[in-house]
Amino acid sequence: MSRRKTERQLNLVICLLSTRRHLTAQEIRQTVHGYAEADTESAFKRMFERDKRELRDSGIPIQVGTGDAVSGEEGYRISRSDYELPEIELLPDEALVLGLAARAWRHASLGEAAANALFKLRSAGVPVDSEAAPGLTPAMRTDEPSFGPVWQAVRDRRPISFDYRKPGQAESETREVEPWGIVNLRGHWYVVGHDRLRDARRVFRLGRIRGEVTVLRGGPDVVIPEGVDLRSVVAGQTAEPERTALLRVRADSAHALRRRALRVVPGERDGSGNGWDTLSYPYSDTPALVRRVASFGSRAEIVEPAGAREAMAAHLAATAGSAGAAESEPVGTGGAGGTDAPARGPRSADQLRRLLMLVPYALGRDVRVPEVAQHFGLSEKQVVADLSLLWMCGLPGYTPGDLIDVDLDAAKETGEIIIANADTLAQPLRLTADEAASLVVGLSLLEALPETEGLEGGALKRVGEKLRTAAGAALGSLADSVQVRVEGDEQVARTQRRCADALEAGQRLHLRYLSGYLDQVTERDVDPMGLVVQDGYPFLEGYCHLREDVRLFRLDRVLELTVLPYAAEVPEGVGRRDLSAGVLQRSDRDAQVTLDLEPTAGWVTEDYVCESVTELPGGGVRATLRTPAPAWVVRLALMLGPEGRVVAPGALAEEARAEALRALEYYRTEQSCGKLVETTSSPE
User: Fold this and answer.
1) Of 397, 391, 406, nearest to 7 (Cα)?
2) More exposed terminus of the chain, fewer Cβ within 10 Å: N or C?
3) The dihedral of CA 557, 562, 567, 571: what is its sign?
4) Is 58 helix (H, G, I), strand (E, B) or coil?
């Protein structure tokens, strides 16, 4: 945005804030510095209409009234009661949780809105510290490119149109939806609303939207039905287990199956400790059961029911046939990666919003250029440029006594920001809908965390009510239309509380930990450094003595936890991880793997970080990803069966084929009286 445009819009704000009556457009043209650039009446009207629209988009409430009593011509002013952030007082515990709520969005698309909200609150004298409680790091991610426009549509209550590909479908279908809200469940975002083309309530996962989302501007606003519980609607999409399967699993293996089993009956062991255990396993969908058990290869077998056993045999046979068709090198893997965020275009009101936040923040405070540069992600040179622009603005008349006074020499030489004669802008602007909603939704994430249980009925509730009051009509129902559902698990909650206690006491922990990549349990001594909660999944961050490095441990994979009677001793110079790229981070040392996926396996590109995804004939895709544990790819190939195959490296493809053949031998036998009787010949 040009410097002159920013000056003009800032002068317009100051003028409309200082007037006691509504000013007509012509009075504004003659009074506000900058509108003289318009040579004609039509040019002025276009310029003025554009300025009004952009100011309103920035949350500045321009009021329309009668400007000329004789002609009845419209006039404009800004009511201070609508513009200024109402007084808000926070107790220390309220300020703590508010800082945590803002931190939840730090690395997501609403991070800027949450940071600006805190900046405004600090300008009003509210003591909010976004770095408080450093041991806990709540985090939300919004990697889906469609999140931004869907959020905007929910905020503005506008219908949307998009192309959507359901799991198993080769082609996308166009949907036209009246969105009621968006929900985060198990790390994925969903939009809930009324599907106009099907005249029914529907839930759509944002990661399955193809192409751009179009916000439809015409027609009435979307009306949200009363009593709709968005989180329950999304959670209801998952079928509850209705049946029980009988499984056999190798001793000390298939740990994920064991954890979900209704009953585990240990079997006999040989001299080496090898043997089989029997599991009663709940399930609702046979294909899903087959995929889950198949991922453990020859270490797990479906015994009953017969239909699931037959389905598993067919699945493994298809895996053995398709896995062998690997190519030595991946081909055609160009294309956009699944995690690349859309590039941000220019936002013309950024500089104006910065200045309107900076003035009240700097008045009467010791504020430095580096602090402001860090907050807004600018260079110090750009901050000084902003201040020099501010120096040219002020009240109509624009004499030295009317202009804002800025000590530019101090800013350049010592970094100190000294602003005076800016009483018109002394109070911070109200929170926008995005700013207020980002904090309220962040608070809803905290409600489910064990570390804040003592605050749930107190500080969390109080600060939420104060935020809604401070935001006023701007927030509307947006905060209630964006929800985060954290799956409750009492065992995980207990583990999390014990980790928090050990962190506070500075004690070392011993973990029996199930690898997220491999069917393997390791023993770890860990010095806790912090707790991270991303997308509802809690992690312990600590120094692992086994790996001699900082690691993140997902708490639902901790099988046993013991608090050791030793003090935690994190080596000097070892710090916490930078999580700006997320909890799961890629490395150049990771193995590169290429997969061909049928349309029914599109979930792989949604659940895992892919470097590239390319469309294939028939609706499938070729996906390239990196992993620190190549053996995990074999498990993934066994799970996918005929829905996917390893293209490269060829060694992994051959390993998947061999393991499928080993597991298939179990299904060429019949089980009778605890003995296996061969009924067909073994494969070559």
Assistant:
1) 391
2) C
3) negative
4) coil
Whole-Å CA distances, 554 to 62, 85, 576, 584: 49, 40, 16, 11
Per DSSP (E only), the strands in 324-409 are: 367-368, 405-406
**Of 486, 598, 574, 590, whose CA–CA distance to 537 is shortest?**
486
Please, which residues bridge with residue 189 across strands? Answer: 184
Using alpha carbons, select from 673, 395, 398, 413 the residue that is nearest to residue 387.
413
- Residue 455's alpha-carbon distances to 101, 124, 254, 337, 494, in angstroms, are 13, 24, 39, 41, 17
Pairwise CA distance, residues 226 & 495, whole Å:
38
Cα(437)–Cα(429) distance, rounded to whole angstroms? 16
In this structure, what DSSP letter does residue 340 have?
Answer: P
Which strand (E) or helix (H) includes residue 279? strand 276-283
- Determine how β-strand 521-534 pairs with β-strand 136-139: parallel
Residue in the block written with tokens 């709520």? 101
CB 443 within 8 A of CB 101: yes
In angstroms, rounded to a whole number, what is the distance separating the alpha carbons of residues 150 and 606?
A: 18
Per residue in 441-472, pLDDT (tens digit) is 888 777 656 555 555 457 778 888 888 887 77
**Residue 192 CB coordination number (10 Å):** 26
**Residue 674 region, left (φ>0) first, then alpha (ψ -120 to 50), else beta?**
left
**CB-based contact 279:249 (threshold 8 Å):** yes
Which of 654, 643, 634 has the alpha carbon at shortest distance from 602?
A: 643
Single out the residue of 248, 245, 244, 243 nearest to residue 674, CA to CA: 248
Q: Token match 């980002």: residue?
A: 438
Rounded distance between C-alpha atoms, residue 563 and residue 502, angstroms = 7
Residue 178 sits at φ, ψ, to 5 deg, of -95, 100
Q: Bridge partners of 215? A: 160
Q: How far apart are CA 153 and CA 204, in angstroms?
A: 15
Which of 43-52, 377-386, 667-676 reaches the highest mean pLDDT? 43-52
For 242-275, the pLDDT digits (tens) are 789 999 999 989 998 998 899 999 988 877 778 9
Q: pLDDT per residue over 562-605, tens digit each?
A: 999 999 999 988 888 776 655 666 667 888 999 999 888 888 88
Pairing of strands 62-66, 209-215: unpaired
pLDDT at 31 exceeding the cut of 90: yes
Is the separation of the CB atoms in 355 and 6 below 8 Å? yes
Q: With beta carbons less than 8 A apart as the criterion, state whether 79 and 429 touch.
A: no
604 Cβ neighbours under 8 A, 6+ residues apart: 595, 597, 610, 623, 636, 640, 644
- Among 321, 329, 318, 295, smallest CA distance to 647 is for 329
Sign of the dihedral through C-alpha 96, 100, 101, 103: positive
Q: How far is CA 485 from CA 140, 178, 234, 381, in A?
A: 12, 22, 9, 43
CB count within 10 Å of CB 546 equals: 13
Strand-pair category, 367-368 with 300-304: unpaired
Whether the bond between 649 and the residue before it is cis, its omega within 30 degrees of 0, is yes
Cβ(555)–Cβ(539) below 8 Å: yes
**Neighbour count for residue 453 (Cβ, 10 Å):** 13
Are 161 and 149 in contact by the 8 Å Cβ rule? The answer is: no
8 Å CB contact between 235 and 485: yes
What is the distance between the alpha carbons of residues 115 and 563, in angstroms, rounded to a whole number? 37
Cα–Cα nearest to 543, from 553, 531, 555, 529:
529
24 is written with which tokens? 């007509």
Q: Which two tokens mark 434?
A: 């995005």
